[in-house]
Design goal:
Number of helices: 12
Helix content: 25-40%
CATH architecture: 4-Layer Sandwich
Strand content: 15-25%
Bound molecules: zinc ion
CATH superfamily: Ribonuclease Z/Hydroxyacylglutathione hydrolase-like
Number of domains: 1
Distance between the termini: 37 Å
Radius of gyration: 18 Å
CATH topology: Metallo-beta-lactamase, Chain A
């Protein structure tokens, strides 16, 4: 435990560029926005966060190594922090290649027991490179990424039956603008967070829909608390799961929350100046070739993978 606390302090010191009170000074100095990019990785998640000072974090890495080219095209040459939200390959599939290529300083993962040979290989790469590994704890913990503050949610007791419910939750605060990322968390985990840390959930303008817009990733109670102004679904074209589900689309429509989808828009880019956010024009032109995109969207055969891409439950 002492080790973890020390790691947290080291992390905060290393990533910190400034205190919150100095944020607006720094913002005017850099003149740059914070950028949140929901990368088009087919059916999977990968979210790139850039602070105004150029600090970078990648939350998940999609299913394949394709994400490396995407990051290079976006001008990324190194990463400060990488996160695996949970142990399903539509979230960590490309992470081994990302780590090989970008040598992140910190690796945040859940330390839950569900595993695969591919995931163990990823952990070995993290160890071999000497990357500092950090875990969520029973209490919320803060990571400063330049002037952005990432708050890692408290981790609920392990769900041994449903790995989605072991997802890491993160709130990203850029001054008055907040982004909520909760992996593939289903109702059980979200309810636990609502009970345990409601203030981390309240009032986030930008919501990444949990579990790719599945009906078990969003509900009215969640939206009542989050009060998002925009929702983003990271989904592959024609995916086998039917994500995003009709029920989620209806719910968002009833709340008049606009939805951006990576299967329709390609990478979804949102900028923040610490007071307001704005959606940048669609980058569909940057999408992979249709044939390659279809390949990455298809569910891999059981022979090729030693686990389902994610829970078969819809
Ligand atoms: Zn997933």
């Amino acid at each position: 435990m002492k080790y973890l606390i020390r790691a947290a302090i080291v992390l905060a010191l290393s990533l910190a560029a400034t205190t919150l009170s100095a944020q607006f000074f720094q913002r005017s100095r850099t003149g740059k926005p914070a950028v949140f990019e929901f990368l088009d990785v087919g059916q999977g998640d990968s979210i790139l966060i850039r602070s105004p000072e150029g600090k970078t974090a990648l939350i998940d890495a999609g299913t394949s190594t394709h994400v490396v080219q995407t990051l290079k095209r976006l001008g990324i040459s190194s990463l400060d922090l990488v996160v695996v939200s949970h142990h399903h390959s539509d979230h960590y599939g490309g992470m081994h290649a990302v780590i090989e290529q970008f040598h992140p300083k910190y690796f945040l993962a859940s330390n839950r027991s569900h595993t695969t040979s591919l995931y163990l290989k990823l952990l070995k790469e993290v160890r071999d490179q000497g990357i500092q590994t950090i875990y969520p704890t029973e209490r919320a913990r803060k990571i400063e990424l330049g002037s952005l503050v990432l708050t890692v949610f408290p981790q609920p007791p392990e769900d041994k039956k449903e790995e989605n419910n072991n997802s890491i939750g993160i709130r990203v605060d850029d001054g008055a603008v907040s982004l909520l990322l909760t992996g593939d968390s289903e109702e059980t985990e979200r309810q636990w967070w609502i009970q345990t840390c409601p203030n981390l959930i309240r009032n986030a303008q930008i919501l990444k829909l949990a579990h790719h817009g599945s009906r078990n990733g969003t509900d009215a109670h969640w939206l009542d608390l989050v009060k998002p102004e925009v929702a983003v679904a990271s989904v592959g074209t024609g995916n086998d799961y039917g994500h995003p589900h009709r029920e989620t689309l209806s719910l968002l429509a009833s709340y008049r929350i606009p939805l951006k989808r990576t299967d329709e828009s390609g990478t979804v880019t949102i900028e923040s100046d610490g007071r307001r956010w704005q959606l940048l024009p669609s980058q569909v032109a940057d999408r992979p070739e249709p044939e390659e995109h279809r390949k990455r969207t298809r569910r891999p055969s059981r022979a090729a993978e030693d686990e389902p891409v994610e829970s078969r439950r819809r």
